[in-house]
Amino acid sequence: MVPSLDRLARSLQDLITIVADLRRRSVGFRSLKEALDTTTPGGRLVFHVFAALAEFIRELIVEGAHEGLAAARARGQRLGRPPAMTAEQIRHARDLLTRPENTVSSIARLLGVGRSTIYKYVPELATGPAVEQPTVRAELEAGS
């Protein structure tokens, strides 16, 4: 027993396979929303019709979503998550990284982002001359 057909499977083929497997095991199938019972020939016919309609509707929804995304891209809208850092923050991070006393971690904390975000938006850190990072030992010696 399921609340509706679309909760059991993602495609018509999966749905038919599951219900056929249940039938081989002498297990009836009922869908509450569609008031469907596959233990009768009429119920099996209605099951196949409803399953085909459910898949058709799902495909229409997916197609509509893809068309909407394509239209948004054509209008030049930016899709997805907004950038984590502004151009001003990136310039500020680059400026701070020129000073040897600053670490990537301290700059990330100052700007309210993660270290990996700094490396993402300032790619020359990974490829260019490395900014010297104080070691744990050097920090301990400085604190002694």
Compact summary:
InterPro entries: Homeodomain-like_sf (IPR009057), Resolv_N (IPR006119), Resolvase-like_N_sf (IPR036162), Resolvase_HTH_dom (IPR006120), SSR_resolvase (IPR050639). By secondary structure, the chain is mostly helical. Helix content is 59%, strand content 3%.
Structure overview:
59% of the residues lie in helices and 3% in strands. The chain has 144 residues and is mostly helical. It has two domains: 70 residues; 57 residues, no CATH class. It has a two-stranded antiparallel sheet. The protein starts with 11 loop residues before the first helix and ends with a helix. About 8% of the residues have low confidence.
Low-confidence stretches: 130-141
Give the biggest sheet.
Answer: 2 strands, antiparallel
> How many domains make up the 3D coordinates?
2
End-to-end separation in angstroms reads: 70 Å
Describe the protein's topology.
Blueprint: H1 12-24, E1 30-31, E2 36-37, H2 41-74, H3 87-97, H4 104-111, H5 115-121, H6 124-127, H7 136-143
Helix pairs in contact: 3-4, 4-5
Defining key terms:
single chain; 144 residues; mainly alpha; 2 domains; two-stranded antiparallel sheet
